[in-house]
């Protein structure tokens, strides 16, 4: 087994790049590519065609209220209490070699000092997450892509009032909370087959009105700004003194800098760096509501199910399944989601469409952002876990400042924090 060592080398900063390769097809890659292109770089976006990244398949929520990292002991205990089928957490035992070593790193990240540092770093990003989205919607000239009305969280059980009170008393960063009054609860219960007993509205959050449209609009604006889109798969990165080379399924590319934003696949492109990414799979079902759902987007907290309206469609999302990205999906997860839809009495006017996707999650539940100290031409932009959509535009802002002006990033985001394997060279 290769030994590991921490990266302690100090390298001279590189001049601002004239050319940049951005690898990946999700919200992180596309926002970074557009931001760098608009700031004068010659950018090539390398992304496989016809892919559906997690940023396409999630609940569409801009979750500014989530200012605490999930790497904490309270989360670890939920693996037992909320394990499927009792709850939304699932461990794919056939893929244990993929997530078991990751879990030991996760427990280390739960130490109080690490948690405080991680929370502070995440909060710093989250404070600017929604303003960055508003700026992006303006840049795209598509304010309709962003709905600023917030989200409602609902509880059904006997302890609903207690859970709602706890939510009201919790620190939610830039988001603000207001309890639903009796009239608002009654409006939900007129539609739902299973009544809810308490709810909280989270303002200062938002949601995307059409995830596919967001990705397509970003790509179109990037190309209109002079960017190049190569429909290909990145295979290997080689960092050299004067440039960085990327082998793709369509040939070799060379640039001054490369941004790695390939989600769960990012580690395969960085073979000499420890990248303990786990595939944290989520599932959704989607269907036509027949014009019968006009209520706000809602998280049914007791079920760990988020219901989002995208125009004529409703989408129900859930589950945290630790697995391998290539492993087969578990049909029981979709069946459980469909059972929740029926139990809630949500309007269904079409067959269900099913989807699954892998969130790229590092053990401390923070993204890897910034330059590798032993390979300053390679820039990390992966590991956003549940917050990829939320943090897409603000990630583009901080990374572009880092790449073009040398702006520092919190050490909590360092891509070197999980150490380097021996034998790594520039």
Give the number of helices. 11
Helix coverage percent of residues?
Answer: 25-40%
Bin the strand percentage.
25-35%
Main beta-sheet annotation: 9 strands, mixed
Q: Give the overall average pLDDT.
A: 93
Spans of 5+ residues with little confidence (pLDDT < 50)? 1-6, 421-426
Shape: globular
**In angstroms, what is the radius of gyration?**
21 Å
Query: Care to count the β-strands?
Result: 23
Distance between the termini: 22 Å
Structural class: alpha/beta
Defining key terms:
single chain; 426 residues; alpha/beta; 9-stranded mixed beta sheet; 6-stranded mixed beta sheet; 31% helix; disordered N terminus; disordered C terminus
What does this structure look like?
This protein is an alpha/beta fold. Strands 5, 7, 8, 9, 16, 17, 18, 19 and 20 form a nine-stranded mixed β-sheet that branches. A six-stranded mixed β-sheet has the order 11-3-2-15-22-21, with helices on one face. It has eleven helices and 23 strands. 31% of the residues lie in helices and 27% in strands. It starts with a strand and ends in a 5-residue tail after the last strand. The protein has helices at residues 27-38, 54-57, 73-81, 96-109, 112-126, 129-139, 160-169, 182-191, 211-224, 331-344, 388-405; strands spanning 4-5, 19-23, 42-47, 61-62, 89-91, 146-147, 151-155, 176-179, 198-203, 206-208, 228-231, 234-239, 244-248, 251-255, 257-260, 278-288, 298-300, 305-310, 313-323, 353-361, 368-372, 375-382, 420-421. Helix 1 runs parallel beside helix 11 and helix 6 (129-139) crosses helix 11 (388-405).
């Amino acid at each position: 087994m290769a030994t590991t060592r921490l990266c302690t080398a100090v390298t001279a900063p590189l001049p601002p790049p004239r050319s940049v390769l951005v690898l990946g097809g999700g919200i992180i890659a596309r926002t970074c590519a557009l931001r760098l292109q608009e700031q004068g770089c010659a950018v090539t976006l390398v992304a496989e065609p016809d892919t559906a990244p997690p940023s396409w398949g999630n609940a569409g929520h801009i979750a500014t209220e989530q200012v605490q990292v999930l790497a904490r002991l309270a989360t670890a205990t939920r693996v037992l209490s909320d394990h499927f089928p009792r709850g939304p957490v699932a461990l794919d035992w056939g893929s244990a070699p993929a997530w078991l070593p990751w879990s030991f790193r996760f427990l280390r990240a739960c130490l109080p000092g690490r948690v405080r540092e991680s929370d502070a770093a995440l909060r710093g990003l989250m404070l600017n997450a929604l303003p960055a989205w508003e700026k992006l919607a303006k840049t795209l000239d598509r304010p309709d892509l962003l709905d600023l009305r917030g989200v409602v969280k609902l509880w059904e059980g006997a302890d609903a009032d207690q859970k709602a009170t706890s939510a009201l008393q919790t620190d939610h960063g830039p988001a603000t909370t207001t309890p639903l009054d009796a009239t608002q609860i009654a409006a939900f219960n007129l539609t739902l087959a299973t009544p809810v007993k308490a709810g909280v509205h989270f303002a200062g959050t938002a949601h995307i009105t059409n995830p596919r449209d967001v990705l397509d609009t970003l790509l179109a604006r990037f190309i209109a700004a002079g960017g190049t889109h190569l429909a290909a798969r990145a295979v290997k990165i080689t960092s050299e003194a004067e440039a960085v080379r990327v082998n793709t399924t369509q040939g070799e590319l060379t640039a001054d800098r490369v941004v790695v934003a390939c989600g769960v696949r990012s580690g395969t492109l960085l073979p000499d760096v420890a990248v303990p990414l786990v595939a944290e799979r989520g599932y959704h079902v989607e269907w036509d509501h027949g014009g019968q759902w006009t209520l706000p987007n809602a998280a049914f907290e007791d079920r760990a199910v988020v219901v989002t309206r995208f125009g004529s469609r409703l989408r129900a999302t859930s589950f945290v399944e630790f697995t391998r990205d290539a492993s087969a999906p578990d049909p029981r997860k979709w069946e459980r989601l469909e059972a929740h839809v029926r139990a809630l009495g949500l309007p269904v006017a079409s067959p269900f469409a099913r989807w699954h996707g892998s969130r790229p999650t590092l053990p401390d539940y923070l993204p890897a952002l910034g330059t590798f100290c032993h390979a300053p031409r390679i820039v990390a932009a992966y590991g956003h876990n549940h917050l990829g959509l939320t943090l897409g535009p603000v990630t583009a802002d901080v990374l572009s400042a880092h790449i073009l002006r040398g702006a520092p990033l919190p050490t909590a985001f360092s891509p070197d924090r999980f150490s380097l394997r021996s034998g790594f060279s520039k």
